[in-house]
Amino acid sequence: MLNTFQQASHPMLPKMTHDEAARQEFAKSFKGFIQGKLLPGLGPVYASRVSKAFEKANGRPPADRRDIRAGMVRELYFQHYAAANRIAQELLWEATNISVDRELPELIEKARELSASTTAVLDIPASFETPRYVTALDIHCMPGGYATEVTKDDVSTGVLYDRGVYLYAMGYMGPYNDDMGRSVCNYVKRNLKGFQPRRILDMGCTVGHSTLPFKEMFPDAEVWGIDVAAPQVRYAHARAAGLGLEVNFAQMNAEETRFPDGYFDLVVSHILLHETSGKAMPRIFKECERLLAPGGYMIHADLPPFNLMDPFTQFILDNETWYNNEPFWGAMRELDQPALAKAAGFDPAEVRFDTAPMAVMEFAAQAAGGYSEDAATAVAEREFTAGEYAPGGGWEVLIAHKAAASAHQKAA
Q1: What pLDDT sits at residue 306?
Q2: DSSP letter string, 149-172
Q3: Rounded CA separation 57/54 (Å)
Q4: Span 182-196, average pLDDT
Q5: What is the CATH number of domain 176-411?
Q6: 61-99 confidence digits (pLDDT tens)
Q7: Where are the alpha helices (DSSP H) in 34-171?
Q8: 300: CB partners within 8 A, 6+ apart
Q9: Mean pLDDT in the chain?
Q10: Given a cut of 90, is residue 375 above it in pLDDT?
Q11: Are residues 301 and 183 in contact, defined by beta-carbon separation less than 8 angstroms?
């Protein structure tokens, strides 16, 4: 799909100069060139040279992404692709940071004003221990990572993330970077008929870009976004106020929140799980089960697990692990997530993977007169293609349902 979107302005985004905007647009276009022009050349290189050389040397064809990687890393074409991809990632942050640094004092003051203008809660504890899997490295190569604070009431990493994610996604997250939230909201509307959650929690919300669609779809619901990074939730709170939505934000760890048992009807996340760890993920699922009221749903949106794609596509996706500071990216996709959800206490008969079609793709098809409910449903039968932003035009969602209370429990 030809991307025709530009990021929508809101009070918490810096006002870029002409040169800053040009540099950032170049970074976005460079990523598009790499994905659209360089990446497709990897398939022929693998098929014509690497797979044959591997089989000759080992007496068998490559069996998995690790075998493929062992051969591909020796290829000059792959080295060129990987280097260009890493340079593009660093470039988009550098280009964005110029705007953030120039306007940071004004943005901090704007955040204070906007947060004071809303009745929504902002809860940042005086002391909080951010998990090491977040602080140990600059995830996505983002300078300072998610949680770094350089001054009082800092929002710099929130601003950087908001603009940087738009560039990273090449516009495919939509004008408000909220495609994942909108996609999950659309999924809930289509597939959980009549479900009207009173309280909704978005775990690992960063700047709240995927949180706000839930408030728009369920305006009477109490909506919370939580994240381990104070600058992110501070920015998210101001951003929501600037966009006219009353959404609560708090610095909390999804492994152990401060909410009471059964407080929420819907707990969601959007690309949270691969930013955690093998030890944290089971704890997060157990916390979701504790937080949900009987009859509630847990929905985690991410990219597909590896068992739903061929080894070459796995290899392409796993480059995020090797070159973009995503240490849990590949390992997370090998875990049996449904088994973890069942072990956490969810109804075994109602734990599954499904597909939420990308809202931005549906919007574009609708604008062109080609959208239909049947077309949206057909996305679930797609094939994954190496290098797609969201493989097959949809987000993979892990859904788990907490059993409704029995008549005896209701009476009690």
Answers
A1: 87
A2: --STT--HHHHHHHHHHHHHTTTT
A3: 5
A4: 95
A5: 3.40.50.150
A6: 999 999 999 999 999 999 999 999 999 999 999 999 999
A7: 42-45, 51-58, 65-72, 76-116, 132-135, 156-168
A8: 268, 269, 272, 273, 337, 397, 398
A9: 91
A10: no
A11: yes
Q: Phi and psi (nearest 5°) for 371? A: -85, 140
- Contact criterion met (CB below 8 Å) for 326 and 274: yes
* Per-residue pLDDT tens digits for 335-359: 999 999 999 999 999 999 999 998 8
In 277-330 the beta strands, taken as DSSP E runs, fall at 292-302
Identify residue 115 by its one-letter amino acid code.
Answer: S
Q: Phi and psi at residue 163, in whole multiples of 5°?
A: -75, -40
Taking residue 369's Cβ as centre, other Cβ atoms within 10 Å add up to 6
Give strand ranges (E) for 204-291: 222-227, 248-251, 264-270
58, two tokens: 């080992």
Tokens 């990897």: give the residue. Answer: 42
Residue 125, φ and ψ in degrees, nearest 5: -65, 155
pTM above 0.90, yes or no: yes
Rounded Cα–Cα distance for residues 197 and 401 (Å): 13
Q: Is 175 helix (H, G, I), strand (E, B) or coil?
A: coil
In terms of C-beta distances under 8 Å and separation of at least 24 residues, what long-range contacts does 245-248 make, across chains too? 245/212, 245/215, 245/216, 246/118, 246/119, 246/120, 246/215, 247/120, 247/208, 247/211, 247/212, 247/215, 247/223, 248/120, 248/121, 248/122, 248/123, 248/222, 248/223, 248/224
The token pair that represents 348 in the structure block: 């075994």
Phi, psi of 391 (to 5 degrees): -50, 125
How many residues does the structure list for the chain? 412
Q: Please count the other Cβ atoms lying within 10 Å of the Cβ belonging to residue 360.
A: 25
Q: Give start-end residues of each CATH 3.40.50.150 domain in the chain.
A: 176-411
- At a CB cut-off of 8 Å and minimum separation 6, what does 108 contact? 151, 152, 153, 154, 155
8-state DSSP, 247: -
